[in-house]
Amino acid sequence: MNKFRILLFFIFMGFFTGAYQTGSMSTVSQEEANTFMSEFEELILDIDAFGIFTHNTTIALPMFIPGFGIGWGLFSAWSTGFAFAAITTTAPILENVPPLAILFLSPFGLMELTAYSLGISRSFILIRAVFKKHDLKQFIKPTIIEIGIVIGLLLAGGYLEFYMIELAQEEGLQMPGFDL
């Protein structure tokens, strides 16, 4: 079961990455980008590290729902990629930044990717167990442990992301929507 679990984790990490990349390749009109940015700026207006954690956790926890979590996770990945495309439309300087670099080269991106991949793959394991009519009691403990890992990753990632945003702004880097 452990090898299967690890394999599933990496398979769903690949699916998440593919959905994110697909969303980031979306063509976003200037009007759509401006609308997105105004909503995005309102969303993050007074956000802090705990707010980032809370936002990411509300996205991650539904990923543990058997079956539904797979679709939710892939939609979340695509939406995040689409958000990157919208931001790139309003800030052309970011056109040279590969979308996957943010996911794989930032510590908080890796933490979020790991957390989301855990949730999505656990969703698959649970729905598979339901269809195979397995006793679900055996899945309670590993699911709770993984939820704890996800919460820990997202808590640390939220504080790290907030710190990196503040540090970048202190250095004079202005990021669209991050006027903290």
Short description:
The protein is 75% helix and 0% strand. By secondary structure, the chain is mainly alpha-helical.
Structure description:
- With 180 residues, the protein is an all-alpha fold.
- It is built from seven helices and no strands.
- The chain starts with a helix and ends in a 10-residue tail after the last helix.
Architecture blueprint of SSEs:
Elements (H helix, E strand, L loop, with lengths): L1 H23 L5 H14 L5 H12 L7 H23 L8 H7 L1 H25 L8 H31 L10
Helix pairs in contact: 1-4, 1-6, 2-4, 3-7, 4-6, 5-6, 6-7
Mean pLDDT: 91
Structural class label: mainly alpha
Shape: globular
- pLDDT < 50 stretches: none
Profile the largest sheet: none
What proportion of the residues is helical, as a percent range?
Answer: over 70%
Along the chain, the helix and strand elements come as HHHHHHH
Number-wise, the strands total 0
Number of H/I helices: 7
The radius of gyration over CA amounts to: 17 Å
**Percent of residues in beta strands?**
under 5%
Feature tags:
0% strand, 75% helix, globular, 180 residues
